[in-house]
Structure formats: structure tokens, C-alpha cells
Amino acid sequence: MSTFSAPKGTYDLLPPDSAAVLAVREALAAPLRAAGYGYAETPGFEHVELFSRGVGESTDIVTKEMYTLTTKGGTRLALRPEGTASVLRATLQANLHRAGNLPVKLWYSGTYYRYERPQAGRYRHFSQIGAEAIGTEDPALDAELIILAADAYRSLGLTGVRLLLNSLGDRACRPAYRTALQDFLRGLDLDEETRARIEVNPLRVLDDKRESVRRQLAGAPAMRDHLCEACKEYHEQVRELLTDAGVAFTDDERLVRGLDYYTRTTFEFVHDGLGSQSAVGGGGRYDGLSEMLGGPPLPSVGWAIGVDRTLLALRAEGAAPAAAPATDVFAVPLGDRARRELFTVVTALRRAGVAADFGYGGRGVKSAMKSANRSGARFALVAGERDLADGVVQLKDLGSGEQTPVALPDVVEDLRRRLG
Ligand code: AMP
Questions:
Q1: Domain 17-173+227-316, what fold?
Q2: Which fold, 329-419?
Q3: CB 3.0-4.6 Å disulfide test: which of 116, 150, 154, 287 passes with 263?
């Protein structure tokens, strides 16, 4: 071991496990690309204010979990704790919303940073795939995103993902609900910190996981009973579209999520095989965020899926994608001349689109054949002085053990044919 190890709450992705992570990312991204979402990439850090304003001054993410730093020039930056604020900032900065083609549909993939207490499924550095549809208010767009996520989980073979759905109302109906909720919460027996939360962001109290609090919340007023007609109608349409698409959901009036910017549709995908960190993904509509960031009104909806937790869910179901062998052909040179000839063959194979690897380090045939077998390759190419004198290399089928000499100039074509 070296003197250094990765910081607490972080992890390294290395083979063979890393292949499964790539497969998960690809499975989550593919449906988005096919639905008109373009790829977006934003910096790993942003101005602190983007998150304090965009995610919310009263959220744990901003008050407790943000990694902040001051540059030598005195600029206050934060490692990004989530993707939505950055992607919306980038959209506004590039004026994508002005191109007249709304919604702006973007997807992204990256690592995010939160100073949380590490535990299974909760890291300080983690990976998400996200999607945002910016600038359009349409229940079909909310439904589209939810369906794409549900289909992505299904394409991975996950069966245990449940969808929780709620509406948080809008500027018209939420204030009255907020007041009613505050009145109810002020009457409860709660600790100092929670009492303070009632005044800043009472909806978040509904999200409290402690049993002593949950018990007291039993009679809390529900947003559902306070939705205005427009929000009710909107939510009903989202529900109908999901039902038409065969996407099952559970109405969960306690689902508020940790971020301040959500309006109307909110949803979370949970998996029961994950213990306390059960959320594999979540999102919702954030109609007011653009204005909070100084932009024009741009009603939007989006989600983020945790890549790490999706993989944990797959493992919990025993369905983690296996690493496909990366190599089709492994070359084993015996002697200096063979090294040169076979190295040329390997380069030619790669240029012809065949995944090939080489026994480096001038090792003996036994050790090189071990590497060939371990690589998962279907064929080994073995050559020594005598083979080369005859103008051939030995093509060994590593499955059957069968060995055939192939003329050196024909090797690439022969292997291409055999590998189909
Ligand atoms: P959030 O922005 O908190 O809704 O996060 C979206 C998704 O990212 C969650 O559903 C999780 O799957 C994942 N996630 C959030 N925080 C963490 C974390 N600290 N470690 C691992 N995954 C996380």
C-alpha cells in the first residue's frame, strides 16, 4: 500500500467493477439521447452564490454539506453539490432558451460533492446522470422524464424500483399551505433546530425521518388538500400519462425532497434493497428557479439519478452487469523477432477494429498464456522463431484449445472473419 489513501467518503473506480459503472451510465443515458436530450458538461465548481441562491439557503446541502473554497484571487467557489443549478446557469449564460426551440432538453453525467456522513450508499463524492427540460410547462414533459427514468431502470433489469409521486403546488397555492403547515408544526414537541426549520422551510420538516417526529406528523395538513385548480389539473394529467405508459407510482404526500426550488411535480425512485439510503433517483419541476438565478421565467423539470446507488440496487437484486471481456485476441510472442512481428499484427488488428492485447515484458510462454486466458480473449496468437521461419503464426482457440497455423499476411482477415 502507498502512504496515501483516498479521502474519507470517496472511492476509486477500478476494473473489474468500473465496467459495471460504465454500463449503468450508458443504460441511463441511452434513453435520454434517443428522446432528444443533448449532452451538457459544466465545471466541477461554481460560484458559491449559485448554489446558495439556486439550491436554497435553508437546505442541508447548502448549510452543512457544501465544499467551499476561496481562490487566491478572493473568489468564493463551491464544488458542485448537484447539477440542476449549474445546467440552468449554463443554459441562461449561452442563451440557449432564446434560440426559440423550447424546451431546451439537456442531459449530463458527472461527479458531485457533499460533505455528508459517509455510510453505505452515501458518499462525499458520488456520480449522477441528470436530465433537464428547460422552458416549457407541459405535464407531458414531466411524464416524459419520469418514463425515461423508469424505462432506464427496467432496461438494466431492475425490478424493485418504486416511484413515489407528489405535487408541491405553485406560487398561487403553496403560501397558504405553508402557513397552515407552520401553524400545525408550531404546536408539536420538537427540538430547537426543527423549530427553527418551521420558520424557514416548513415543508422540509415533513421529510424528517426520525420516528419521534414522524409520529407527531400523522395529522399534518397535506398539500394535496391545498392544491389550486391549475395545480390539481396539472398533476392529474401527469398521473394519467404515467398510467397510460404503464408506469406504476405511489402517491406520497410527504415527498418534499431536500431542495428549495421544486414546484408542482416531485418524484423519487426508491429501492427497498438499499437500507436507509433508499433513493436511487429523484427530481421534479422547478418553475421559479430561473428567476431566482436572475433569468426570465423558464418553467422546467428534471431529475438526477445516482449511478452508485443504481449499481448497489442492481447488486442487491443480483443483477449487476458483468464486465464484458475487453479483449478478443491476445498475442504471445516467443523471442525477439516474434515480439516485433506480433506487435505489428496487434496494431493491425486494432486498426481493423479487433480488440487485441499483447504479452508484454518478455515473459515465458506459460506466464504469457496465463495472461491470455485471464484477459477473456477468445483467441491467442502464438509465434516463435520456427513459426516465423515458416511464415505463420499459431492461432489458438482458447475455448476449445484447438490450434491452427495461419499465414502471417492472412491473420487479420482470418480473425475478423472468425470473430464475426
Ligand atoms: P438529490 O439531488 O439529493 O435528489 O440526489 C439525486 C440522487 O443522487 C439520489 O437519489 C441518490 O441516488 C444520489 N445521491 C445523492 N446524494 C448522494 C450521496 N451522498 N452519495 C451517493 N449518492 C447520492
A1: BirA Bifunctional Protein; domain 2 (3.30.930)
A2: Rossmann fold (3.40.50)
A3: 287
Say if residue 83 carries a ligand binding annotation.
yes
CA of 287 to the centre of ligand 1 (A): 21
Question: 45 to each of 78, 86, 112, 251, 407, how far by Cα in Å?
Answer: 5, 9, 9, 36, 56
Q: Is 264 annotated as a binding residue?
A: no
3-state class (DSSP) for residue 164: strand
Tens of pLDDT, residue by residue over 266-312, are: 999 999 999 888 999 999 999 999 999 999 999 999 999 999 999 99
Ligand 1 atom with least separation from CA of 83: 2
Looking at residue 122, the DSSP 8-state letter turns out to be B
In sequence order, what are the beta bridge partners of 244? none
Name the pTM for this structure.
0.92
Atom index in ligand 1 nearest the CA of residue 114 equals 19
Q: Give distance in angstroms: CA of 58 to centre of ligand 1.
A: 18
Enumerate the domain spans of the chain: 17-173+227-316, 329-419
For a ligand 1 pocket test, name from 65, 66, 112, 209 the mutation site with the most ligand atoms within 8 angstroms of its C-beta. Answer: 112
